[in-house]
Amino acid sequence: MHGLSRLGTVRSVSATATGASSSPPSSPRLRHGRNKNTGFGVGRWGKQQNLVERLVLVVISVVFKRKGVLLLAPLLYISGMLLYMGSLGFDVVDLKSVVVVHKRTPPPGSLYTSPQLFQKLWPLMEANATHNALMTAWNSKVHQVWKPCANDSISKAELPKSNGFLIIEANGGLNQQRLSICDAVAVAGLLNATLVIPIFHLNSVWRDSSKFGDIFDEDFFIHALRNNVNVVKELPGDILERFDNNMSSIVNLRVKAWSSPTYYLQKVLPKLVHMRAVRIAPFSNRLAHGVPSYIQGLRCFVNFETMRFSEPIRTLAEKMVERMVKNSSQTGGKYVSVHLRFETDMVAFSCCEYDGGEEERREMDIARERSWRGKFRKRGRIIRPGANRVDGKCPLTPLEVGMMLRGMGFDNTTSVYVAAGKIYKAEKYMAPLRQMFPRLETKDTLATPEELAAFKGHSSRLAALDYTVCLHSEVFVTTQGGNFPHFLMGHRRYLYGGHAKTIKPDKRKLALLFDSPNIRWDEFKRQMQDMLRHSDAKGSELRKPSASLYTFPMPDCMCIDDSLTGYIHEWERLS
């Protein structure tokens, strides 16, 4: 084994990489809603739009032919754009340099009219509840059953002498930290480095001061990795003395996001060997998806086999799961879990509008300024609430989640666990969901105040409780994306034979359906059940080269179970 890198030379790593590194996905904070509805420019408006475009182009071409008046070009361009936007029927309002665009005749799906639709459909929901979809939610014909095999790729050989100590800083919430930890172990394995237990950065949004050992079982983590990567709880004293006993004196390498293994071997390894200790902070998304199979296998092993929660979290979480199972005796111990992203910060960040009017807008402005100072007030920033909704970017309300589930066939006997932070105006927005599902639980109702006392004020520890209850549900519903559902879907695939057992709704379609005042209940049900079948069919997806194995663990972390696959084929033949 190579003394500097367990994978040999840089050239060999490049040759064995399983895929090219992908460019980092654009942040949702930077993406503007893109309305894919092309129906804006038809008929009378289309003709007017074409006329304005021709006029603007003619004027600009004349200006550019006369060099003496080139300075007028920007002014003419802006005037033309204003005429263009006016021709589309938009009201453009400048509120303290933030442009808010409202269309005079809102396109279908751009308004929040779900409460009105609920009032119309509610009597029919109650009258037509005939069976519970919980017992038959997952009916896709499985032709291959997968089993965990993350352990198979793990080396049992003795570790070579370490090249130095790697210190990383994990930021974000629970699952962002989890991603950083898994990738840090993978990088330590790549560089043959000793990993110091990761430091958790105090995030301005999450505001959780928890350390690694408060959330994860530190001793179990170190022991489980003993044959793969050396892990220590703190930097040894003799190494720290070389940096005047000051951790901040250790050089911080600014590694770009999604860096390749080659980059680490060429740029980071020499500094590690020379200085004996390096820091990488922040360490979020700092390793590419496409890495050699050995490193990919190490990622699998870390995420699915070593990241056990700390004893206090495990103890309470197991009690909560037991209580959910007991409360679900009418459905054979099966229950539905929902990751509901309707906290104040999420509603504010989405720039969507609901039914709270001017009071809601004022509260959302305050929330945006508190958490993202000035980001949403930059000059030229365009906020399009209607376009965001049509494009499926608005968080589903509790009412919309309830209507969707009732349409899919989950009746009022279904036990539902809601994983969420503090819901925006919870008394108002949670009421209809409780009306549709009386057996609704949250961590605050499932655990006693005394049991939760040690977790209050620690969002990552509370998220770990939610994570565990959702992991063991028969059906998991994701409503807004993010690391929490992505890690859960992967973990559920790893546990349940390769199937995520997750409902991932089409929010573009939902926006149109919820804004259809004349839709019949039978048609609404048909659309929801089609959406459930689609989620079922997509439950066993394999990882694409640009995707994350934390969400799609097949085939990197799992193997086909030939014994069960053969049994299923035989059962299908006989039936």
Weakly predicted, low-confidence segments: 8-49, 81-90, 567-575
If helices are DSSP runs of H or I spanning 4 or more residues, what is the number of helices? 23
Task: Output the radius of gyration.
Answer: 27 Å
Largest sheet: 5 strands, parallel
User: What is the 3D form?
Assistant: globular
Strand residue percentage: 5-15%
Proportion in helices: 40-55%
Span between N and C termini? 53 Å
User: Taking all residues together, what is the mean pLDDT?
Assistant: 85
SS-based structural class?
alpha/beta
**How many DSSP E strands?**
15
Structure description:
By secondary structure, the protein is an alpha/beta fold. The chain has helices at 10-16, 43-65, 73-87, 114-127, 174-191, 212-215, 218-224, 237-241, 261-275, 293-306, 311-327, 344-350, 357-371, 385-390, 398-408, 426-436, 443-446, 449-452, 459-471, 483-495, 507-514, 521-537, 562-574; strands spanning 90-95, 98-103, 146-148, 165-170, 194-196, 199-200, 231-232, 277-280, 336-339, 382-383, 416-419, 440-441, 475-478, 502-503, 558-560. Strands 4, 5, 6, 7 and 8 form a five-stranded parallel sheet that branches. Strands 12-11-9-13-14 form a five-stranded parallel sheet. Helix 5 crosses helix 10. The longest helix is centred in the first third of the chain and has 23 residues, at 43-65. Mean pLDDT is 85; it is low at 8-49, 81-90 and 567-575.
